[in-house]
Amino acid sequence: MDGWKAELEVAEAAAKVGGGVATGYFQGGLAADVKNAEGEGTYNLVTVADVEAERAVVEVIRKAFPGHAIYGEEGQGAGDAAAAILSSEDVWIVDPIDGTSNFVHGVPHFGISVAYYHKGEPTVGVVGSPLHDDWYTAVRGGGAYHKGRRARVSPCARLDEILVGFGYFYDRGAMMEATLEACAEVLRRRSHGLRRMGAATLDLAYVGTGAFGAFFEYELAPWDFAAGRLFVEEAGGRVTTCHGDPLTLCKTSVLASNGLVHDELVAIMDRYFRKP
């Protein structure tokens, strides 16, 4: 990991500072508002904690790398500037609190994600469950680590040997119906079960450690998968869209797996939903 040691240290420091802010709000109460996003109804919540946690993360990154671009969920790179930011040679992609609905409702399962991309490639990623001081790190070409040990994806080669994680976007129409149909198909294939945990960053981490054999969601934003994608890949897994295409830094579907069940799941995911 020496090649990107400084970036990894900053990513870890930023994630822990931001995670500390989020944990403080979770334990002490918070205020929630509804994001005014077209098509997302009243389901997408933003909290004071999201904004303050992101501010703390950004401060750490900017102090260390003032010339780097930052793209975050809560306003660091919103609107028309997003594409330009994401095409920068050095860009940090931040999700201060993933699982805001859990957070707002007092469910102790939420994540923080800090990723560094160099020339369009995921290079450093840190995902954490700050409430439990549980951290997942990855460096391109340097492996994925959890609790000081090398992480590896599940060695199971069949759906009837694995748990599958899934999520759904704030859409409550065709996309969610397709998700439920895909889940039913996964169950018919006799998987060990399905889990909808509500924090995609951590779901991806679970694929990397082998707890989940796979995870899918028909729509995620870059901050949801930027770090977790690298963690899965460095743990020996595979990450594509739900249709088997390469991921790009835009809203997209995501399928992460141990690689061994990937093609079978692509066939299932592709059958039930494809955006026009």
Residue runs with pLDDT of under 50 for 5 or more positions: 37-43
Q: H/E series, N to C?
A: HEEHEHEHEEEEEEHEHEHEEH
User: Can you tell me the CATH superfamily of the largest domain?
Assistant: Fructose-1,6-Bisphosphatase, subunit A, domain 1
Strand content: 25-35%
> How many structural domains does the protein architecture include?
2
Number of strands: 14
Radius of gyration: 17 Å
Mean of the pLDDT scores? 91
CATH architecture classification name of the largest domain: 2-Layer Sandwich
| Largest sheet features | 7 strands, mixed
* Count of helical stretches: 8
What is the top-level CATH class of the largest domain? Alpha Beta
The coarse silhouette is globular
Helix content: 25-40%
Largest sheet: spatial strand order? 3-4-5-6-7-8-9
CA-CA gap between termini: 41 Å
How do you describe this structure in short?
The protein is α+β, with helices and mostly antiparallel strands and 276 residues long.
Keywords:
single chain, 276 residues, alpha+beta, Fructose-1,6-Bisphosphatase, Chain A, domain 1, D-Maltodextrin-Binding Protein, domain 2, seven-stranded mixed beta sheet, five-stranded mixed beta sheet, 8 helices, 26% strand, globular
What do you see in this structure?
It is a single chain. The protein is an alpha+beta fold and 276 residues long. It has 8 helices and 14 strands. Strand 8 and strand 9 (149-150) form a beta hairpin. Helix 5 (174-188) crosses helix 8 and helix 6 runs parallel beside helix 7. The termini are far apart. The model is unreliable at 37-43 (pLDDT under 50).
